[in-house]
Amino acid sequence: MSRRLVPVLIVAALAAGLGLWASQRLHAPAAPAPALPATRAVTLLPTPRVLPAFALQQESGQPLTQDSLKGHWTVVFLGFTHCPDVCPTTLAELAGAQKLWATLPAATRPRVLFVSADPERDTPQLVAQYARAFHPESLAATAPLPQLEAFARSLSLVFMKVPGASGDPADYSIDHSAALVLLDPQGRMAGVTQPPFDMKGIAADLEMLTKAAR
What we know:
The protein is of the alpha/beta class and 214 residues long. Helix content is 36%, strand content 19%. It has a 6-stranded mixed sheet. It has a two-stranded antiparallel sheet with strand order 5-6. Helix 3 packs across helix 6 (199-212). The N and C termini lie far apart (60 Å).
């Protein structure tokens, strides 16, 4: 073999080796996300569900979107302000959980989002006033019916208008899912919990998940 050919072969071998290494790096599977700690009261999904884009209406006039929820674990509860029992009871229980994680840093502290499924009667201002009567840090929103239905469906929640016995169009109620849905700091559906709620367990789970995400 000629001496002039040896360097050429060495360079070619090095180039082939670098190409193979780059190809392996490029096509290597992504590293799995760190496993979340075991929870006590919240059932975590095996894989968080990416939600379709949404824009709910807030009192401030600024739309509430996935980006609005990033950086925090968020508990979503669907209801309405004229609800006679389930909604006030659940929001009061959630307020107790919010007090338990109040010592966490505000930048990462879990949040509660109350979404009204009754846009006919519940303005964004009324929804905010109602939710914050239970806890001042609660988020609150609503939206026109099509957007609400799409948002609820993405979280596997349902609601339906139920006419009252009087026949008066203004006399109606809203049947709705009572479950709480958990969104992770990326705004994805990450878990769910069903009534009866273990609020101390939910608060402990959210505190643990928040600390684990740091």
